[in-house]
Amino acid sequence: MKMQTSILKVKGLKKSFKRFQLGPFNFTVEQGIVVGLVGANGSGKSTLFRLLMNIMKEDAGEIHVFGEKRTGDEWKQKVGFAGEMLGAYDFLTIHEIKNLISYWYSTWNEEQFENMIKRYRIDTDEKYEKCSKGTKKKVDFIFTLCHNPSLLLLDEPTAGVDIVSQRKMKEDLIQFMDDGEKSILLATHTAEEINQLCDEIIVLDSGQIRHSFNKDEIYENFGRLWISHVTDTMKNHPNVIYCEQNPPQIITNHLETIENILKKEQITINQVQRLLMEEVLEYLIEY
Ligand SMILES: Nc1ncnc2c1ncn2[C@@H]1O[C@H](COP(=O)(O)OP(=O)(O)OP(=O)(O)O)[C@@H](O)[C@H]1O
Predict the structure, then answer these.
(1) ipTM for this prediction
(2) What fold is seen in the domain 222-286?
(3) What is the mean pLDDT of each run of 10 residues along the chain (287 residues)?
(4) What range(s) does the ABC transporter domain occupy (predicted)?
């Protein structure tokens, strides 16, 4: 069995604003793993990325990247971050920004850049500020990948991107993960990206980590059961995340446990249904 290596380790990370508190956060992103970050608008995803990239200073906690505490800027050579980085240079053309970025990264891959520019049909003579929202997202994505990073931090990379390009981005991310050496932390609002790309899921709610799951656990454990009647024991059980009286049904995050209790309580199970990822995410975020 392969030893798990932490590419990103976050311990006791905290940040407070006047009206919002993030953390304390504790989580790891292991090598070869894609972690999906989901949560309602304003739950703290972008703030987390800003803290990870040192764009914003944490109030407390530690962030280790590639096994070491972040110091200086050297660690950024191996990290690809898509989100708000190009704002300061947006009066330049994409070609000019590329010249700056490629100078900074010792591992810049010009051939990959040229290929991706063609693949995503980007006009490099366009000023970044003049690009459409979706085109900016694609340009950010290309810059993120072309310096051969080992860790990608992607804040909703496909938001506002056309369907064809979304598919290409997903293909590029799957290829990026191909050698099993790299990792991604991906904030997303789409169940499809979770299904197709992620191994683990962290659910944020009002600045807190509400749930953290392996994706297979979700497929295995989450389900909807139509039952003869709902009792108070079922209503209040910690593994019941939602229940309805009419018609009597419950949503659980641990099918096996709940099926056993229903048997004990002599409640008849009429039907069991696995949940789709969309439904699971909705229940995790909403309830
Ligand atoms: N510099 C700041 N000063 C004060 N409050 C801030 C600052 N930055 C973020 N916040 C607050 O932190 C909270 C989380 O914002 P954040 O942008 O991280 O959410 P998000 O999960 O990325 O949302 P979305 O899904 O809409 O992108 C919000 O309430 C926001 O107002």
Answers:
(1) 0.96
(2) Alpha-Beta Plaits (3.30.70)
(3) 78 97 96 96 95 95 94 91 76 95 94 98 96 94 96 95 97 97 96 94 95 90 94 92 92 94 93 92 84
(4) 3-231
Which atom of ligand 1 lies at the shortest distance from residue 49's CA? Answer: 18
Domain ranges within the chain, ordered by starting residue: 6-217, 222-286
Atom of ligand 1 nearest to the CA of 156: 27
Rounded to the nearest angstrom, the distance between the alpha carbon of 287 and the centre of ligand 1 is 21
156 CA → ligand 1 middle, Å: 14
Which atom number of ligand 1 is nearest to the Cα of residue 56?
1
Contacts of 224 (CB under 8 A, 6+ apart): 249, 250, 251, 272, 273, 275
pLDDT for residue 85: 65
Q: Is the CB of 43 under 6 A from ligand 1?
A: yes
- Topology (CATH) of 6-217: Rossmann fold (3.40.50)
